[in-house]
Amino acid sequence: MLSVSNISLRYGKRVLFDDVNIKFVPGNCYGIIGANGAGKSTFLKILSGEIDATTGQVSTNPGARMSVLKQNHYAYDAYNVLEAVMMGNVKLMDVIREKDEVYGKPDFSEADGLRAAELESLFAEMGGWDAESNAASLLSDLGVKEEHHGKKNDGD
Predict the structure, then answer these.
(1) Is the pLDDT of residue 156 over 50?
(2) CA angle, corner 13, sides to 8 and 16, nearest 5?
(3) N or C: which end of the chain has fewer CB within 10 A?
(4) How many CB atoms lie within 10 A of CB 149?
(5) 142 pLDDT exceeds 50?
(6) Cα distances (Å, whole numbers) of residue 88 to 12, 54, 59
(7) Which domain holds residue 39?
(8) Which residues, other chains included, contact 154 with Cβ-Cβ below 8 Å and sequence gap of 6+?
(9) Positive or negative, the Cα torsion across 12, 15, 21, 26?
(10) Domain identity same for 84 and 141
């Protein structure tokens, strides 16, 4: 569950939103609507921790994590749908990239082996072995058919 308590955001005298309280509970689908400039994207940035609210707090269940994809549609053109969803978990993707770099070294050293072991442990702790199937389930639950999971934005 994601809970928002007394969130306010002000820029000088301008109040973007004030005293927002909401609980996002599992099993529900939520949408945020409003006019351009009303603060929808800003509110989502507060939820993700990208920016801080003026007042209030955002809390999640212990052990829960939030994955976020940026609003830039073109940032994911080089990736298929499944990869793009997985990129929402930035920390896991950083571990995967570093693992690939370490294992790809032509002169793999003992220090590289130790780092690889650390990365493998992090990967497992973060649910890396299930990340692809979890992303596929998420897409399917959102109505994206499995046949589209491997497609890229360029029509591939």
Answers:
(1) no
(2) 35
(3) C
(4) 17
(5) yes
(6) 32, 26, 19
(7) 2-60
(8) 77
(9) negative
(10) yes
Q: Hunting for tokens 């591939």 — which residue is that?
A: 156
Convert 124-143 to b/e letters by CB count within 10 Å (16 or more is b).
Answer: eebebeebeeebbeebeeee
Strand partners, 22: 4
Question: SS3 of 35, please?
Answer: coil
pTM equals 0.66
> Per residue in 49-68, pLDDT tens?
889 999 999 998 887 778 88
3-state secondary structure 55-105: EEEEEECCCCCCCCCCCCHHHHCCCEHHHHHHCCCHHHHHHHHHHHHHHCC
As for how many domains the chain has, the answer is 2
pLDDT digits (tens, 9 = 90+) for 67-118: 888 778 788 888 899 999 998 888 999 999 999 999 999 999 999 999 999 9
Cα-based distances in Å from 153 to 78, 80, 128: 8, 7, 25
Determine the pLDDT at residue 4. Answer: 92
Asked if the structure places residue 122 within a domain, the reply is: yes
3-state DSSP assignment of residue 32: coil
Direct distance between the N- and C-terminal alpha carbons of the chain, in angstroms, rounded to an integer: 36
Domain co-membership, 78 together with 52 = no
